[in-house]
Amino acid sequence: MASTSYLEIANKRVLVREGELSVIELKFYEDNPRVYSMMHSTDENPTQEQIEDYMLNMEHVKQLRQSIESVGLIDPLIVRDGDFVVLEGNSRLAAYRKLARKDINKWGKVKCKILPSDIDQDTILTILGQYHIVGRKDWSPFEQAGFILRGIRDTKYPIDELANKMGISITLAKNYVRVYNYMIEQNDLAPAKWSYYEEFLKNRSIKHAVEDDPELENIVATQIKKGNIHEAADIRKIGELVKHKSKTAKRLVRQYKEGKVSLQDAYTELKESGQIDEAWVKFNKFKEFISDADFDEKISEMNPDIQKKLLFELKQIVKRLQALEKNVTKK
Q: Sorting pLDDT into bands at 50, 70 and 90, what band is 24?
């Protein structure tokens, strides 16, 4: 017998029925971010059978099936009445379908919370946002971003309004949409490439370099797509290369762009030159500071008491430099 309860959604109480439904009559949610981008690669919408087959091959669904078989279902599925679409819990539905093939009597029905058939899109967005973006965050950033972008498309809401409805920060929503849209522009919706493109877009050194040299953007994006950049962290190496304005750095960037040197080799050479050694960089900045002619003028304008303090500190610095010189000489 079904019972009723309330689901708290963005300070609103929605009446739901609770009970068991047949896994056969339940339907996968076609906008489920787990599979949307992969399954909508053609103009035709995927069938329920295609979605199920795809999900059953996902590693997390295989692990979930084993967990459910061992300890049972923890969270009920959230289903829309009428069409029996599973709005939340598609991975669990796939796992149950697999188990039901082995034992229909034991796994043929699954616990569900059944929402009204006329539940509006705003509420659906809020539910899924609370579950998967604000809550346990089991969707990857790529999946979250795709869901946010489709929410904007389907509701026509401005991004800040949609973010508020989903309970996420506007900054996060804008960043997700920016990266996802860029991946669309690059015709590369591979979820594994998300962190590469995110790092590429947020790196300030690369941003400034691309403004001066748009060709660099095409070269890096192409290398990401082809898999020539092996880790997202390697994008930061590009940032280091373009950040420095020395002759060595400029030469290495040029050779990297021309394909004459790999990213790793260019970065290694720059590192061995000492230009990205933290201690050397700090020391060089100190040297440039005290070598500036303006610094001499500022000293002359100091009052006598400050000059006395400066003189004392300079003597201490000289002693420290002499000690450093001996230490370096020994090595």
A: very high
22-42 CB burial, b ≥16 within 10 A, e <16: ebeebebbbbbbbbbbebeee
CA atoms of 320 and 219, how far apart (whole Å):
46
Mean pLDDT, rounded, for 309-326: 85
Contact 282, 288 (CB under 8 A): no
Whole-angstrom Cα Rg for the chain? 29
Q: Is the CB of residue 140 less than 8 Å from the CB of residue 191?
A: yes
pLDDT tens for 73-83 read 888 999 999 99
Phi-psi region of 159 (alpha: psi -120 to 50; beta: other; left: phi over 0): alpha
Helix 234-243 vs helix 247-257: angle between axes, to the nearest 10 degrees?
Answer: 130
